[in-house]
Amino acid sequence: MTSGATEDAVLDGVREEVLVDLPERLDAIADGLHAALVAKSAVEYEQDASPVLALLKQARATTMLIPSACGGRGASAVDAVRFQAALGALAPSAAIATTMHHYKIAALGKVAAAGDERAGTILAELARDAQLIASGGAESLPGRDLRSLGSQAVRGADGYRITGLKRPCSLSTSMDTMSLMVELRAPDGAPEGYAQAFVDARAQGVAREPFWHSPIFRAAESHAVQLTDVRVPQERVFPLVGETGRRFATDCYTWFQLLISASYLGVACCLAEATPKERRAGSRAWTEAAAGIRRLEAGLLDAARAIDDGAPAAEQLNLAMQARDQVEDELAGLGNLLLRAAGGGVFARTCFYAMLAGALNAIAFHPPQRGAREGIGLELLTPDVKGRD
């Protein structure tokens, strides 16, 4: 700070809001988005996030990480982290769900930038209609290689036929396209490696089934998607081979760590709203939690700058994973402080904020979980990050 007056002004803002520039974060990506989103409460959005998803499409915020050359916003990693945290503060489930959309697009953008025409074509199609992608990656279980997928794509004369099950799959209701990792098979069943496939959500053989019954993030549309002999053109299946395939997988993990962590910080910011503004400055628990959230975001932003600055892939991945681990280690404790600051009256009147406090623990369930950091895309992790318990 350059002066005591400036510092006091900033601290006054921090005491009242965790994210003092929340409207600007959203409007920098889509002008007027903040005003549209605050027309409803977070409580309403946690019952049904479809209005949020519709607003994101209408405002073309779904194109945030599509390169400008492909018709998207071409936002930086720093701006994307800031956006997801702000969205999570207003609509927690929507932030968690759209992380699955943005990270896959960001990684595909790197493939397009490397000259892959198929990737550029898909991104241009997504940008044209501001589509939403659901990401059907592998579930991370301790002791299980992330390449053990359960979805297979059998090569044929007309492309590939995909059969598999993704459970849970966020955005299962609202998705326009489903992106999933598959095991490639020859017509005789012989293995041919792994690939990323992009499936039209309206294609014959795509079915949704109820799966998510928890009240936590119920609005993220995380149900089951069953694919049965779904035809996918060859140009929409990207074999993960060579350096391009390895880099795509690594970029998926890097971006996912940043954006899912930012979204959970946003959930904590939503929980911070339980304490009335006039009581925040005098609450040690609230101010300590607010400072902690901002410190954790600073770590995410440092990792995001490594992406924006073009740091080596290994540095990007390890910084992102370390930042995610720090969020995972500390966020639930900060949520407990915020719940304490809100007071027993809030606890007695509604279960909403207690639910959010519990939801902060769910970041531990996202891949790659500790103890399950093996497989394609994770080869560049340092031993201390890979082996962290």
TrEMBL record:
InterPro entries: Acyl-CoA_Oxase/DH_mid-dom_sf, AcylCoA_DH/ox_N_sf, AcylCoA_DH/oxidase_NM_dom_sf. It comes from the Bacteria. Keywords: FAD, Flavoprotein, Oxidoreductase. The keyword Flavoprotein applies. PANTHER family: ACYL-COA DEHYDROGENASE, ACYL-COA DEHYDROGENASE FADE28. This is Acyl-CoA dehydrogenase.
